[in-house]
Amino acid sequence: MRHVIALDVGGTGMKAALVGVDTAPSGGTSPGPPALLYEARRPTGRERGPDAVVEAILGFAAELRDLGTDRFGVPAEAAGVAVPGIVDERSGTAVYAANLGWRDVPMRALLSERLGGVPVALGHDVRTGGLAEGRIGAGRGAERFLFVPLGTGIAGAIGIGGRIEAGAHGGAGEIGHIVVRPGGRVCGCGRRGCLETVASAAAVGRDWAAVCKDPQAGAADAAKAVESGDERARAVWHSAVDALADGLVTGLTLLDPQTLIIGGGLAEAGDTLFTPLREAVRRRVTFQRLPSIVPAALGDAAGCLGAGLLAWDLLSTEVTA
Fold first, then answer.
1. Beta strands 3-9 and 259-263: pairing type?
2. What are phi and psi of 314, to 5 degrees?
3. Backbone angles phi, psi at 138, to 5 degrees
4. In what helix (H) or strand (E) does residue 232 lie, and over which residues does it extend?
């Protein structure tokens, strides 16, 4: 079984997989849809410092290599790893991640060395998830899409012609830092009123916790309260939806996508989010073409699947070359 190693590194935990891709029925080299052959999770151990996190990633990958060799009789042909923060995909460097504390980690080179020289692809976590959603998920068939996961923060991945646009400096798609409420809350980026300070899952959870006086309440609790008819929750929810619509309309004005794919924790609210969001976006567009607004299809498997696709792309490039 031909397979690759895929790693999706988050702020507190890592998801990893062995990803298999069947070759085309004709016997060619074009891969078919990826399949998760084996999955595992473990903490990053960030409390032990950035060097320990890097070692945890390398060790996890090496364990997967050994497991794949034992199970399938051949080692993994490549590896893909998705990490948060600022990523230089061209040089294979994890430039900076506030949650993990690292700076300028040559992740691609370190991982390739630990895995015995196999080719390694490094990607940004959200862009990698967007790659998977675009090729095999909710954006499949769309020439242009915008993937926006609503989690602790809000980021974005711009899909164009089967690839994800990273930008000139690796910062494309950061829709969470569009200012939608000037003079509002201070954002981690240093500005005030950024979209993620109002419409992320973390922001909705924080605002609902303040209203309901339960410090443990989160965005999922807010959604349930909305569904039960709680007017306080509806006020919090609609404030977030309105801000999100403002940010999305800015994005679609600039990018003119066919599809807006909404993922992350807040999207798990289903129609409680999507029904008012579609209407709020529709009210705001004037000359713009209204895109389809759809939920992400791959859930938290998107990062691993995307990392696997990055790895298979390396092999496809080698074959083409």
1. unpaired
2. -60, -45
3. -70, -20
4. helix 231-255
User: Under a CB-based contact definition with an 8 Å cutoff, are residues 262 and 133 in contact?
Assistant: no
Q: For 195-234, write each residue's pLDDT tens digit.
A: 999 999 999 999 999 999 999 999 999 999 999 999 999 9
Q: Are residues 220 and 204 in contact, defined by beta-carbon separation less than 8 angstroms?
A: no
Its sign, for the CA torsion 28, 36, 46, 214, is positive
Other residues' Cβ atoms within 10 Å of the Cβ of residue 249: 20
The helix (run of H) or strand (run of E) holding residue 33 is: strand 31-43
Distance of alpha carbon 295 from the chain centroid: 13
Give the distance, in angstroms, between the CA of residue 77 and the centroid of all CA atoms in the same chain: 24
The alpha carbon of residue 2 and the mean position of all alpha carbons in its chain are separated, in whole angstroms, by 25
**Residue 265, SS3 per DSSP:** helix
What is the residue whose two structure tokens read 């997989």?
A: 17
Specify the length of the chain in residues: 321
User: What is d(CA 37, CA 74) in angstroms, rounded to the nearest whole number?
Assistant: 14
Give which of 42, 73, 80, 37 is closest to 310, Cα–Cα: 80
Q: Annotate 107-167 with DSSP letters as a single string.
A: HHHHHHHHTTS--EEEEEHHHHHHHHHHHHSTTTT-SEEEEEEBSSSB--EEEETTEEE--
pLDDT at 38 exceeding the cut of 70: yes
